[in-house]
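Tutorial, part two.
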Amino acid sequence: MISKEVLENWENQHWRRIFHHLKSEGIALTRKNIPKIIKATSFQVMSRKYKGKKFEGLAYCLWYDESPSRPCHPEIKDLNCLTCACPNYQTDRNGGGCKINSKKGLMYKNQVWDCSGCNFGHSPEYATRFLQDNLDSLKKLSETL
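Running the prediction step on this input gives:
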């Protein structure tokens, strides 16, 4: 079973990548900038910019390198990478899990909760709502990571 520490580290690295990307684009975490943030964190933009690039010694995203023309969730029109570390993913327990009990996820090899079959949180509309509801906490997180 993958430890909660490993999952929490992965989640924190995701947010560091997002904050690094936004800073490199000159986009501050403000309500006014939400449309810019959504556009900048689209799979289309991110995969073009970071294909073959590393962040903290790891691939920016394996999907950018292995399959930039076919994203991790190909069924989602305008896939957005902002919530790759899904807010409904339970990183605070060994093996992970789903806070909303999505039927589209499963325990992979009794090691880790795999939600790659779920498309709940990756649309531009969901990412926009997520930002509207969590902008202040994301600003605080960006200052601590």
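The CA atoms of residues 83 and 130 lie 8 Å apart. In part three we will examine how such features are distributed along the chain.
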